[in-house]
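Extended Data, panel c. Modelled sequence:
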Amino acid sequence: MSNGITKAQEIKRLTKPLIIENSKAYDCEGNLIRCVETLSDVRYIIEPREGILTEDEIMQYAPESKAASKIKLKRGYGTISDVLLVYESLPWFLGLYYTVLLSISVVLFHNRSLIPMVILLVLFILPLIASYWIFNLKNYEKSVEKISKKPKAEKNTTKTVETTIDKTSHVSLKEYDHKVNDLEIIFEVKEKVVKQLIEKKFEPPQITYDKFMAMIDSCHKLFYREADSARNIVSLAAEDTPRIRGELDNKIRNMKKIINQIEDLTNELVVNINSDSKDEVKVLLDDMEDLIGSVKDYKGDSNE
């Protein structure tokens, strides 16, 4: 508990849909939510308050927050998107930094001053080195490996070699297990929210309510089919090959597509909760059908 706020209150705040008013977003408590803009995304994110939830609870109830991205990077299975979210201001800072530096370099180039030019060159290189370290995901993975690495006594050389080979193939693909687990947590929360909104928008019994619920159920089955398939590949793979990783990446991609579609549907329902527009409803249904069809088509192609 922090500042009299319980876990239950914080979880409710994190999982309730945003309230959009006058082009601004608020959480269910009326707190203004800052718009987060990265190179690849622009969105509103509710950040968990410090000292209330555990890391696992943050991953469950605020999986798209900056705090969750920090946890993923800390545990060694974050992505570039997580780095961009954690260091959201860095690209814009670098852009301004190099704009100023280029302006100065033009003046120094005309003056042909050697020492200032050398200093300027160093100033050009240092941020690039720092940025490379920040955006290199292998650095985060190495940090985790150093923490978890423990020396073990070798009693039988043959058994040790066999165990090492077996573990290497599993450890190299273990990141996909983490990704699947994280995506399942995200899907569970978003599925619950969108079902509540559908029920509020189209009170049953209504044909539209039944159609949307049928779509969500189809998405649920496809999502967990992809998740189970990915886990089976990880557990049964004898070695780590580009083909196996390609198949796993496709599974993860399909799971993310389903989550994104659920999120898009949630946002549309929040914005149009009091609207009677049938065109918007039809578009949402068509989008859901297209998504389900595309994932099914992929599954059919991959099994041939």
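The first helix runs from residue 7 to 15. This feature is highlighted in the accompanying rendering.
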